[in-house]
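[Automated response] Your request has been received and processed.

Submitted sequence:
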Amino acid sequence: MKSVQKKLLDWYEKHHRSLPWRRSSDPYRIWVSEVMLQQTQVKTVIPYYNRFLSAFPEAEILAEADLQEVLKLWEGLGYYARARNLHRAAQVLMKHHGGIVPQDLSSLKALPGIGDYIAAAVSSIAFGKPHAVVDGNVKRVLARFHKTDLPTNDPAAGKVFKAAADAFLEKSKPGTFNQAIMELGALVCTPRNPDCHLCPMASKCRAFQEKVVDKYPQRIKKAGIPEYRIAVGVIWKDSRVLITQRKPEGLLGGLWEFPGGKLQNGETPSAACIREIAEEVSLVVETEDRIARIRHAYTHFKIVMDVFRCIYLNGRIKLRGPVDYRWIRLPEIDRFPFPGANRKFIPLIKPQ
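Generated structure:
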């Protein structure tokens, strides 16, 4: 095992990517990077990471920031609960830890949004604590290395892969080793077409030695992703349009959007738009024309969204679902954080 660990560390020393969070030993910056990297590609994260830390270089500044400012900087990165939890965690950090990121796992996991993976990553990388990380890359490397038949997405697999990662960890260099095995999964031991001839662990990898790399890792096949039809309206009243704010919790919590919702059985998109607006904000509108048809994918479902230009007829706003609203001029729209599906059609209505 020692020889494989050394080969992996030597490989990492020579081949690792130069990433901005790897050039810092600041626990706060490492924590921010790990939150952003959850379910998001490195190349996508880098510009967001740099902008975020330019705005919030310390936990204290993040804690004092308005959540809308945080969400606006996060706009487009997705999984917005990460931003809300990071903001709340910074406030907890200031209140209970003097703004200092704690070193022990239990204190880290008590912070909003920090689970086993982020706690292990921060404690090992920032503080040198011997805690193994387990993410998708690590599971894939270990599944092939040990030729593990347990599907990586089986809920029962967590403890098995955690035990394997703990046993494999080079405890004298836990932070570097954790980054090395994740980097191997990202660059060499990839989901498809892995470069096994470049792998420092190939000589001991059971899947490679037995020529069954393409069979691992095994996964439970998931059911198909459902698709929903949505209709939304850009409601004009004089020279302003209406936007509403989602509840602070749940999917896309705290973001702004144009009102609308799901089509009912047998309903046309135009009729659904008129009905949803009446139900959500108590306004009577008529649809003029369709601005766009937007397709957008979330983690567990997809949507097809018809967007209509609407004219306000009558009514006073009463919110049923949204928590706030604004009548805004279109040049103001960039001040507000919007979901990705809305951002796809906003350029079509903004003044050029």
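Summary generated for your ticket: The chain has 14 helices and seven strands. Strands lie at 227-237, 240-245, 256-257, 260-262, 284-297, 302-314, 324-328.
If you did not submit this request, please reply to this message.
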